[in-house]
């Protein structure tokens, strides 16, 4: 049978989702824990490969297994074999047509910026601290220029292995709640480091270092060297993966966006 799982994890101590030859990847620990419950080796397919230091509240994976377990049995059994910074939120038996990656219609990432004069000892692992006041309205105006179907070569990592740089950017929302600035980005799929590189451009505009139209200039250049610095990974979280309703996958599963 095919089983889908919703995975939450704090990416601080990991080299990313994908299994790596050096360093701990979330995938290896999840597969080991599922394998204990299934009593057989398993291979997971994920909705999106998050990078080193990036978090997830709504990663979705699927496996194929000969083992039959209740949804509650899967969740409790797997979590008892995972470290505290990785957690299975739900399990669903799904149709064989379901594919965690290819069935997804969109992914949602949220980047958090802590915008205050003094750094935070407690929040440093889940946000980018910037002491200089940011203009979130200018950042939103710049972000609007990136919405649509575009070649995002200027925002992809040098080592990105995606076959095409073209993506459909469905929406970008820049909002402020007190000292927090949230950048919520929804697209059909993302390139490696794409959200972090876009955030770096929006921050430069929010700081007044560049004009609002610079975002479009960088996009049209299709040149990564024109975009400036990438935002650090710890502010980025995968918060949603959407699928057609017929699959019965929880929408925006996992923890909500920490109240933002």
Task: Write structural notes for this entry.
The protein is of the alpha+beta class. It has 2 domains: about 1-105, Pseudouridine synthase I, catalytic domain, N-terminal subdomain (Alpha-Beta Plaits, 2-Layer Sandwich), CATH 3.30.70.580; about 105-235, Alpha-Beta Plaits. Helices cover about 20% and strands about 30% of the residues. It is built from 5 helices and 10 strands, in the order βαββαβββαβββααβ. The chain has helices at about 25-40, 70-80, 135-145, 195-205, 215-220; strands at about 1-10, 45, 55-65, 85-95, 105-115, 130, 150, 165-175, 180-185, 235-240. Strands 1, 2, 3, 4, 5, 6, 7, 8, 9 and 10 form a 10-stranded mixed beta sheet that branches. Strand 8 (about 165-175) and strand 9 form a beta hairpin. Helix 1 crosses helix 2 and helix 3 (about 135-145) crosses helix 4 (about 195-205). The longest helix is centred in the N-terminal third of the chain and has 13 residues, at about 25-40. It is globular, with a radius of gyration of 19 Å.
Task: Show the helix and strand layout.
Blueprint: E1 2-9, H1 26-38, E2 45-46, E3 55-64, H2 71-79, E4 86-94, E5 106-115, E6 128-130, H3 136-144, E7 148-151, E8 166-177, E9 180-187, H4 194-206, H5 214-221, E10 236-242
Helix pairs in contact: 1-2, 3-4
């Amino acid at each position: 049978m095919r089983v889908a799982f919703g995975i939450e994890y704090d990416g601080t101590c990991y080299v990313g989702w994908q299994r790596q030859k050096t360093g701990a990847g979330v995938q290896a620990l999840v597969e080991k824990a599922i394998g204990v419950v299934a009593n057989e080796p398993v291979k997971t397919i994920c909705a999106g490969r998050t990078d080193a230091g990036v978090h997830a509240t709504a990663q979705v994976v699927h496996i194929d297994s000969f083992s039959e377990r209740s949804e509650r049995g899967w969740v409790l059994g797997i979590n008892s074999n995972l470290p505290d910074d990785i957690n299975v939120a739900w399990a669903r038996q799904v149709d064989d047509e379901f594919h965690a990656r290819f069935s997804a219609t969109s992914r949602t990432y949220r980047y958090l910026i802590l915008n205050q004069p003094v750094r935070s000892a407690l929040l440093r692992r889940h946000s980018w601290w910037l002491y200089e006041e940011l203009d979130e309205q200018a950042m939103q105006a710049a972000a609007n220029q990136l919405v649509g179907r575009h070649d995002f070569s200027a925002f992809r990592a040098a080592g990105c292995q995606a076959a095409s740089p073209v993506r459909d950017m469905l929406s970008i929302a820049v909002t402020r709640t007190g000292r927090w600035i949230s950048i919520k980005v929804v697209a059909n799929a993302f390139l490696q480091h794409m959200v972090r590189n876009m955030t770096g451009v929006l921050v430069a505009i929010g700081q007044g270092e560049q004009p609002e139209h610079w975002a479009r200039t960088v996009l049209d250049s299709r040149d990564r060297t024109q975009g400036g610095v990438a935002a650090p990974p710890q502010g980025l979280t995968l918060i949603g993966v959407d699928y057609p309703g017929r699959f019965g996958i929880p929408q925006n599963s996992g923890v909500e966006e920490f109240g933002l």
